[in-house]
Amino acid sequence: MDFKDLLAYKKAFELSMLIFDISKSFPKEEIYSLTDQIRRSSRSVCANISEAYRKRRYPKHFISKLTDADGENSETSTWLDFALSCEYISKEIHSEFSSQGNEIGKLINYMINHPEKFGVKTEN
Predict the structure, then answer these.
(1) Taking the complete model, does pTM exceed 0.90, yes or no?
(2) Which terminus, N or C, of the chain has the lesser number of Cβ atoms within 10 Å?
């Protein structure tokens, strides 16, 4: 299995691309702040999942990278809140993206709590 086959990765990648598309409409003055931050954090979710998968030989590293992915996912949620408050996105988009982010968080936490299901050799 490749990390790109992981459901958490697929969903995080999809959300990251949706965020990229919607953030194209953000004001130009946000390009080096909100636009950059929300794109970076959403992409980091995917990057950390891929790194975790490649480090699955080392259980603590696997969980650490997934914890980073979960943190980036939470950061993305915060930036979505700012985008809503600044009226850059609609309540419907915010709700949809937040729901997707919550699902991604649950998938990441499942991986953290069940590393053995992802090829991690846990000590018995």
Answers:
(1) yes
(2) C
